[in-house]
């Protein structure tokens, strides 16, 4: 029984591919002015979202999308087997406090900006393994909470280099189920942590590109598939510089992904008009583009099979201060119409 | 196939209970002077462990136990399907950087001090679900890294109230396998996040006791077992005050656990002699006591069936500053000889 599910170390093919029953998205004002505006369900103009702090605003967004995904599928919190969630804040407080409100058995994850894909891969395993009927997955980020935690006090208005990316404000949620109608998760590839020595915290794309490449190459090798087998390969938040590096690295591995690759961090903002430097980033970047844009592409029949690759930079401000380079990870799932 | 594995929301009974093939432990000087000294494999006197920072010392400890657990079972990193790890430091940097060194497909977890049990529960699901043959699980903490991140600069020498607990320095690792000899993981109960309004970050035991009680009661109800069905119910790090509260709460639920309950945080230090106030805490507390003491009890035939309950307080310094109470979680697994 075990053997056919494993197609390589880190890669599994699901026996009964779990279904994405519903997704939900919410974003901030800047994301609502971007090219994907019409793929998001709700745009919140107030960065505080009526709360007393940015952190509480982020938390409210995460709770709202999780509840909305459940409501869309007419599933109650008490029917959900597990909540898998995480975010960028220290001690993943957005996820922890939302888990308190929902009272669903909770598995806290930390995969930095790859979290929604880490959750999707793991959730699909829990369902296909027979341990769950419904798994709820969510992730969030907020420009102002991330900025003050990872970089400078926001009041300081520090300049950022052009390789820096803009943390997406928003949250995305996915309700995964053992059966029903919707795109299916057919495979998952859990990534290894890769670090080629990039140490610039203002160029996360460069740090993450090798991890994305490693995961994609492992996935193709494990599944014996080619790049052309996917209508779209969608990475999480490599941005402009990371994307260029990924294309170059993949070419070195003998794969041309330039025709069918895109990146959530490039899709979500108009870099020419929105002053986001190298593009979007943050847990919400992959989450809202996957739960919004990607799902819409499936619903409209524009995609049949996509490889989504969440990317995460696994540093902390302290590791940078202690002179470390930046480890990164990429987790991939195959979504099929 | 799916149905018999689920015995309740959050609780699963494994079809082919995964085996703890090997464990490994390492602790700091204070732990090496405590009552469990002879259950630990290595005691490190130098809090820096020859490294340049406490964080790097903690990381080195985590890497060492993971490699040791593999070596004991004669398994190579490349044969391991997944590494599940996490710790208390922001962005779980101990786990992330060790994952970089081991190059095993990596699932980062955050469950605060419950992490080793979160990993054990999840690892058992991945193996029993057919997605892995070997899963490596690890967690670590360090008094000095935790103290300066969560409380005061260590140089300040701030006084702590008697309800405070002492973060254990050390790391524990578990190699879980689909087959072999060793205690088996027969059930897992993933906890809900519980918060009864306790807001004192110097009394984590009080915040976590209700979560532990909720998980134990759910577990007993889901499995239709009684307290007496376990030779030992071992909680992670409730300490003296949390343990007293747990006993009281369990009594209110109609269960007397006073005869067969113990707590890793009470076992690891001699509170009379070691000036640790309410007992031990931290990710390493449950990890080293489970991987050391508990495994030894099984090896010596003193235990046939134990319920281990990792407990985690899911706050951050920032949530306390923003006036929040403390959400907590407990994850349980059944270990059987």
Question: Can you give me a brief rundown of this structure?
Answer:
Chains A, B: InterPro entries: SpoVAD (IPR010894), SpoVAD_sf (IPR038369), Thiolase-like (IPR016039). The structure is a homodimer of 337-residue chains. With 337 residues, chain A is α/β, with parallel strands linked by helices.
How would you explain this protein's 3D organization?
The structure is a homodimer of 337-residue chains. The first copy, chain A, has 337 residues and is of the alpha/beta class. Chain A folds into 2 domains: 3-177, Stage V sporulation protein AD (Peroxisomal Thiolase, Chain A, domain 1), CATH 3.40.47; 184-336, 3-Layer(aba) Sandwich (Peroxisomal Thiolase, Chain A, domain 1). In chain A, 35% of the residues lie in helices and 23% in strands. In chain A, the strands form 3 sheets. In chain A, strands 1-2-10-15-14-11-12 form a 7-stranded mixed beta sheet, with helices on both faces. Chain A has a 6-stranded mixed beta sheet with strand order 4-3-9-7-5-6, sandwiched between helices. Chain A is globular and about 50 Å long. Chains A and B meet through helix 3, strand 6, helix 4 and helix 11 of A and helix 3, strand 6, helix 4 and helix 11 of B. Chains A, B: This is Stage V sporulation protein AD. Chains A, B: One of its GO terms (molecular function) is acyltransferase activity. Chains A, B: It comes from Thermodesulfitimonas autotrophica. Chains A, B: Pfam families: SpoVAD.
